[in-house]
Design brief:
Number of domains: 1
Order of helices and strands: EHEEEEHEHEEE
Largest sheet: 9 strands, mixed
Shape: globular
Structural class: alpha+beta
Number of helices: 3
Radius of gyration: 15 Å
Distance between the termini: 49 Å
């Protein structure tokens, strides 16, 4: 008998007009997470980012300039999952996490499929389909 082990990941964009410190506090409290630790990223442009670990998940909070209206990205990934990533055995929890954050933390969230420029937004937990999503050109 051969069992397959799966990992999980998610990427959610969050609309929030205050600073990363306030968003980290709101997510930590609402999602009942350990305090999200904030530090400056070691890579340019050395922005403030957040990190937290709980129940085998690593979580990151980043400023994002991919979309005009969603200033932050919240990503999670199961820890110790290199084998699962390499064998494409990852469950994408993005839609669930976006809805959950929207309902529990009262935030507007968005999940995007970059391949077909579409996405799903959650406003007060209610689903809204998005079409023709445009990324802002990022100069690196």
């Amino acid at each position: 008998m051969s069992l397959k082990i799966y990992g999980a990941n998610a990427k959610v964009f969050i609309q929030f007009n205050q600073g990363i410190e306030e968003l980290a506090q709101k997510l930590s409290t609402g999602l009942e997470l350990p305090k999200i630790r904030l530090n400056y990223d070691e890579y340019p442009p050395h922005e403030m980012i957040g990190m937290c670990e709980v129940l085998g998940f690593a979580m990151w909070l980043y400023p994002s300039n991919i979309f005009e209206n969603c200033k932050y990205e919240f990503s999670i990934e199961t820890e110790e999952c290199v084998k699962e990533i390499n064998s494409k055995q990852m469950c994408d929890l993005s839609l669930w996490l976006a809805r959950y954050i929207s309902v529990i933390c009262k935030l507007e969230t968005m999940v995007v499929n970059f391949e077909n420029n579409s996405g799903i937004a959650f406003i007060k937990g209610e689903l809204k389909e998005l079409a023709n999503i445009k990324k802002i050109d990022i100069i690196e």
